[in-house]
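Is it possible to get an amino acid sequence alongside its tokenized fold?
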Amino acid sequence: MFDPDRLWQLKEGPAAVAFQRAIVVFGILLATFILLKITDRLIRHFFDLARIEEHKKKTLETLFRSGARYSIYLLAFLTILPALGVNVTALLASAGIVGLAVGFGAQSLVKDLITGFFIIFEDQFRVGDFVQVNEKVSGTVEELGLRMTTIREWSGVKYYIANSEIKTVRNYNREQLRAIVTATFPFEENPRRIREVLEEVCREVEREYYDDFLPAEDGLAEPPQIYGVTDIDKSEKGAQFTIIAKTKPASLWKIERILREKIWLACQERGIRLAYPRRVYEGWSEAGADRPLLGD
């Protein structure tokens, strides 16, 4: 008959040693799991009580959780090795020799850690910021750790980027942003009439979306305004008008979309044409008109 008490009386034999080591390793893994949960809860509770800006709070919380996780994993690893019969002292003593072989592979890890430290120290971006990395990946920063940054695009795709691979960053969530909308009109259109329509659009957008604009120093928002004719020589299609407005970070693309749509609708209502690629033929009618004939 099987007697479980006899398992603890076994002192010799490979089966007994393997069983004892398995019990110890299981206990270490269980303790590691519990410690991770406790540490995670303590860090979350600490930052819930801390009086820090929300974006900075999320970034620091992610950083502390990442650092604590790596420390606990390392501690568990160094604890499991003796339980498996590995001489940690001898292993560390031979680290100089092994380090030559591992060093080249660890260079990227060291670069990731150093770059991650400076990203956080210099406050280049935070959790929740909308950024563009290396002119390729655009999305919201979900996690910022010492080794890796995770960014989720609008489509839902999540990118894991090693910090050492981050070369250039565009941050769309810092202080003030300027919405810039351009509209090109054929040279035949009346510029004064165009300006009147654009001014009306600016007033309408300011009235309907006042809270989306960045307050000025005197407490008044800086609404959309016509910057002027910004291109007349380079474009063959017509004269380009530009509208600018200082917006809150979260409202940049919203205001640009609204301005474009309202400009289009206002021009259609008043019979003003927007420029588009076309060919212009010059000639004279048989009746002897004194001006060129224009054809699209």
Notes: Residues 1-5 have pLDDT under 50 and may be disordered. The chain is about 45% helix and 15% strand. Helices lie at 14-49, 54-83, 88-93, 95-121, 191-208, 252-269. Residues 214 and 220 are 8 Å apart (CA to CA).
